[in-house]
Amino acid sequence: MSAASLVIVGAGPRGTGFLERLAAALPELYGDRPLDLHLVDPYPPGPGRIWRTAQSPLLWMNSLAEDVTVFTDDTVRLEGPVRPGPTLAEWSGTDGRRFVPRPEQGAYLRWAYERARDALPATVTLHEHRTTALRVDGPREGRQRVWLADRATPLPADLVVLTLGHLDAEPDAEQRELAGFAARHGLVHVPPGHTADLDLSALRAGEPVLVRGFGLAFVDLMVLLTEGRGGRYEGTEEAPVYVPSGNEPVLYVGSRRGVPYHSKLGYALDGERPPLPRFFGPDRVDALLGRDGPLDFRRDVWPHVSHELGWAHYHRLFTAHPERTTGTWGAFAAAWAAAGPGGPGLGGLVAAAVPDPADRFDPDALDRPLDGLRVPDADALQGALRAHVTADLRRRHDPAHSPDAAVFAAALSVYGQLVRLGERIDTDGWWHGFFSFLASGPPGPRLRRLLALSEAGTVRFLGPRLTVEADERHGVFRASSPAVPGAVTEARALVEARLPAPTVTGTASPLLRGLYEDGARATPGGLLAVDPSDGRIAQRDGRPHPRRIALGPHTTARAGGGFTRPGTGGLALAQNDAAARAALAFLRDGARRPAAAAPAA
């Protein structure tokens, strides 16, 4: 019997997770049939590009070691077998409440890859290709061809699985204009990208640098341009003091909100947990899927999501902190449900039951914390921003505010439900930003060090609703915020501290762009449309491609990442399982491999 050929493009956490699920399902679904398995990635299998071990240990994981696993447990909805494995903390023997360096996570992922590889039966021949896949072609009903950068003949594939992870993008119109402006005037412009891969050497010591973006890319930038250039912290972890090396630029940072993402929670949610999902579960998603016509997130989805987040908040407040409420949870819960999403009685209900406004759930205030802020000058803004970050750190580490942790749990639940809506809505715009701001912020120590950098003058805050202009007359970048009327900051360097959008039309990946040109369907937001049940790539003719599967951030079935928190359902792991089982069933039952369709490997 000739061996079927399966090509996996991308060997990072997603590719590793898919391989683990493939190995788990092989005995049941594929038996002892021979299989040629090709794994294509220029970066090491397991960690891939983002988590490669050859990067600065100053860059940390953004999750606690105890919250990271690539293995299934009983909470993951699987058809395949559960194959438990250690969390990052258990594998490394480290304190579970520690944020480990990314190279350490890379080593864990390498070990997980080797474990999945070693679980493959002897009938599977695994080929590792340390190169880049350039394109996929071939007839819909016949063998596919995967063209690689380092060989003249393509790999034959009965099925192709794309687990590409985060990709680079071509510059959009604005970035091209800014790059051209910088070239004309001898300035420095650093476009969106993965901070660990950027060349920051042109950012010179002592000179001002405008930074647009206050999320996790900024945190990496901050670290590499301070500690990465020889600076150090003295004092305690709770109150660090920054000692400059003299090699740092001065970072002027702002964004739409003007503040960093909320700190990671410094405590675990104990006691009674909110029963989720309640108002945004499978029934609600089914109802939305049953509607005709396009769905608008803010109009059709957000009211139900907000109702769910509020439900979790008040459930925790009433059950864990009843002294700060009036009435009973049962009565409040019944009234909350009866009012419905956005109901006119919700405001009065909350005001009567929750006396302190600080205990109320206010998503608008969460999303725009500096709305209306006006200060007389830039120095006053520094004090206001330091006070904001200090208050956030205090609140996020105080269990007295545990409704915040309940909202975090609800946001994770919502994210899992939204995946089912697939290409019917765009979650990559406002919702993804709100979710990241609320639930995907930096570790507390990073924000304490940000405060120390601010006190040292190495970081300066620009404020919310940041605007950046290219001043042709004077040959400089200019930044301003309405929070400081009339104030303008000029610099000869601009860094866009954010990841590029994962669009198939703007991607720098010729493979992904080629799939789109070959008939793959994309959403208006640019994500690759896939069947949410198994990841098969949707075509513009309305049919899923039988021989092409895609998983990851560039698809409509995007999950939070290639790894997950143990005991939380592991959406990405469930997707990996479904895709692996679909792939094996197709190779067993549906593949037709004409001998002359493609050259042998």
From TrEMBL:
Family annotation (Pfam families): NAD_binding_9 (PF13454)
Record region (Disordered): 532-563
Source lineage: Bacteria, Bacillati, Actinomycetota, Actinomycetes, Kitasatosporales
Name the record gives this protein: FAD/NAD(P)-binding protein
SUPFAM superfamilies linked to this entry: FAD/NAD(P)-binding domain
Organism: Streptomyces roseolus
Biased composition (Basic and acidic residues): 533-544
Alphabetized InterPro entries for the sequence: FAD/NAD-bd_sf, HpyO/CreE_NAD-binding, L-asp_N-monooxygenase_NS-form
Domain FAD-dependent urate hydroxylase HpyO/Asp monooxygenase CreE-like FAD/NAD(P)-binding: 7-166
